[in-house]
Amino acid sequence: MTWTQFLSHFNLLDGVALALVGALWLLSDWIIEHPPRWRPSVSVLMADLRREWMRQFVTRQPRIFDATIIDSLRQGTAFFASACLIAIGAGTALVGNPAPLQNAASDLAALPVADGVQLRLLLVLLFLADALLKFVWANRLFGYCAILMAAVPNDPQDPLAYHRAAMAAEVNITAARSFNRGLRSVYFALAALAWLGGPVALMLATAASVSVLMRREFASLSRQIVMQG
Q: What percent of the chain has pLDDT over 90?
């Protein structure tokens, strides 16, 4: 099947849906990472707490607790990276042979799958690939953070102690930002699956995913608790 035949399965509404997905993907990242000062997101609040963590780290003895946290953060990024790899492999297999997906949809939900399944799945794979790259980078940055923490002198009076702790905090925040972006890409990958049901389903699923992201960042119970600190 040629690209012309592939593209013949799509119409203007599909293009509008894709534009909406791309715009919401970029816009959600911007709003979460650059919120108004009077309404900080959970991500921004946690960045301040990460800086405070590193300030407390300088005087904490022993520092086993901090090493355990960094290790758990690296394990989390490794888990999501592995999950994305598996999902990308499965999605690539379906792009080559979409028949199992079409059969499963008809058997389980009795719902038709829109034409051009391969290209619709490519959108899912795009978000998963983006998530994978961000998780891998976050894992590496958490490793850099661990090394910087190890380089912090044990003596709090050492002039390098708080300086290196601040460096570790900023690398930690950058790693967390990359990790959170990867998670948001996973949200959009899940929403992109709805495109198999058509452009309207894609738009509705994307709107639902963005609303969940915004609620958790700006109106969740966890945010209220963090704000009390």
A: 74
SS3 109: coil
- Residue 209 covered by a domain: yes
Q: How many domains does the chain have?
A: 1
Q: What is the pLDDT of residue 110?
A: 47
Position 2 in a domain: no
CB of 105 closer than 8 Å to CB of 111:
yes
pTM: 0.89
**Is 19 among the domain residues?**
no
Q: What tokens appear for 138 in the block? A: 């976050």
List Cβ<8 Å contacts ≥24 apart for 29-37.
Answer: 29/181, 29/184, 31/214, 32/180, 32/184, 32/213, 32/214, 32/217, 33/177, 35/217, 35/218
On the question of a cis peptide bond just before residue 159, with omega within 30 degrees of 0, the verdict is no
Q: Is residue 31 one of the residues assigned to a domain? A: no
Torsion of CA 47, 80, 125, 16, to 10 degrees: -40
Give me the domain span that covers residue 97. 39-227
Unique residue bearing structure tokens 């799945």 = 121
